[in-house]
Description:
CATH architecture: 2-Layer Sandwich
Strand content: over 45%
Number of strands: 5
Helix content: 25-40%
Number of helices: 2
Order of helices and strands: EHEEEHE
Amino acid sequence: MRNYELMYILKPDTPEETITEIKERLQTIIANFGGEFTEEVAGWGKKRMAYSIDDYQEGIYVLWHFKGVAETVSELDRVIKISDKILRHIIVRMDVN
């Protein structure tokens, strides 16, 4: 398994229960593919963005570090793309020396 970093930005007007549902859904995907979190799930909270996205000036930032396989990343990417509450995301493979 490889180390990955996932960062995503939620719409700032997303209700707390929806945020919890999204996080649980993504965590379940990682677990179903045999992945595991390498660090505590970090939420940066609501921050101002450098530029507006879909007329939003702020977003709720979330950063995760996890171990997984390529299929995990593909499924996360697919699910995030169809979510209407996530403005942007990026999944990066981290090199460990």
